[in-house]
Design brief:
Structural class: alpha/beta
CATH superfamily of the largest domain: Glucose-6-phosphate isomerase like protein, domain 1
CATH class of the largest domain: Alpha Beta
Distance between the termini: 50 Å
Oligomer: single chain
Helix content: 55-70%
Number of domains: 2
Strand content: 5-15%
CATH topology of the largest domain: Rossmann fold
Shape: globular
Number of helices: 15
């Protein structure tokens, strides 16, 4: 098993056993879950200071998930070095300074490498069977509500647009003039909510997930940490790596994961979905939506 997969397994176990830890050990665990790349380059005292606990609390946390001590616990995280820790304004100023110094070639390389690393980190931590199970729930559902706000509203809308070329039960929320909780008012155990939010977590998404769970909906969550409130509440949770040298988080892993999830839904669907997609595009050609190819 590769090092990234090992560290993902450690994080998953830490997340699942979070409620069983003492309050102080929970503080240490939450710090690790939200800052996994710090672990590989930090001493036990540095992690303890950052989490505002005692070093022996970090050691007890490590033993809770099956390690002899902190050094063994840290080993799977050695390769993971956290990127982009500066505040958003500081990172924006750093980009401007780089441009003045003629450093755009370096920025280009950093952006490309971070994009590739994010894709690799995201998909290496996802179990294909879990993605398949989520896709089956989507296909079997009455309605699928895809929730994102801010930049993730566009990501949710794009996923819904693609899905609706062959299926009719998909809805991007919040709808114009509405709220996510209002849009879910009549949803129940026959329906699915796909929720997306990353740090700092948007309260309207977190609240909508809580309401969805109370109403018996299946929740599929996409976020950036195993400690994310929507991941911990989800029936199917998928953690994404979204760090970049830029001052904003990357949407590339979110889009890639949503596209992959949709491909799994289509694979689980009946043949009539393929017929619907063909008819959808046939009608567009007939109505002149597309420019004729001169060739």
């Amino acid at each position: 098993m590769g090092q990234k997969n090992v560290s993902s397994a450690v994080l998953q176990r830490l997340s699942s056993e979070l409620d069983d830890l003492t309050p102080e050990a929970q503080k240490a665990a939450r710090y690790v879950l939200e800052n996994p790349r710090d672990v590989g380059v930090s001493t036990v005292r540095e992690i303890a200071d950052a989490a505002d606990v005692k070093p022996n609390t970090v050691v007890r946390m490590a033993r809770q998930v099956g390690f002899d001590g902190y050094d063994d616990f840290r080993e799977p995280f050695r390769e993971a070095i956290r990127q982009g820790q500066a505040s958003l304004p500081d990172r924006a100023r750093w980009l401007q300074d780089m441009q003045k110094r003629g450093g755009l070639a370096e920025l280009y390389a950093d952006m490309v490498s971070s994009t590739l690393r994010n894709i690799e980190d995201t998909f290496s931590g996802i179990d294909e069977s879990e993605l398949s199970a989520a896709a089956a729930k989507i296909w079997e559902s009455r309605n699928v509500f895809t929730l994102g706000v801010g930049v993730n509203h566009a990501n949710a809308s794009n996923f819904t647009y693609l899905a609706r070329t062959g299926m009719v039960q998909f809805h991007a929320i919040p709808r114009a003039g509405s709220t996510a909780i209002d849009d879910l008012a009549w949803a129940d155990q026959r329906d699915v909510l796909i929720a997306i939010t990353c740090r700092p977590y948007r309260s309207e998404v977190v609240n909508a997930v809580q309401v969805a769970k109370e109403q018996g909906m299946t929740v599929i969550a996409l976020s950036d940490s195993p400690a994310s409130p929507i991941i911990r509440a989800a029936d199917h949770g998928f953690v994404m790596s979204i760090d970049t040298p830029q001052f904003f988080p990357s949407s590339v892993p979110t889009i890639a994961l949503l596209e992959t999830l949709l491909s799994f839904v289509i694979a689980a669907a009946s043949d009539k979905v393929v017929d619907r997609v063909e008819k959808f595009h046939e009608r567009r050609h007939q109505l002149g939506f597309y420019q004729d190819d001169p060739s």
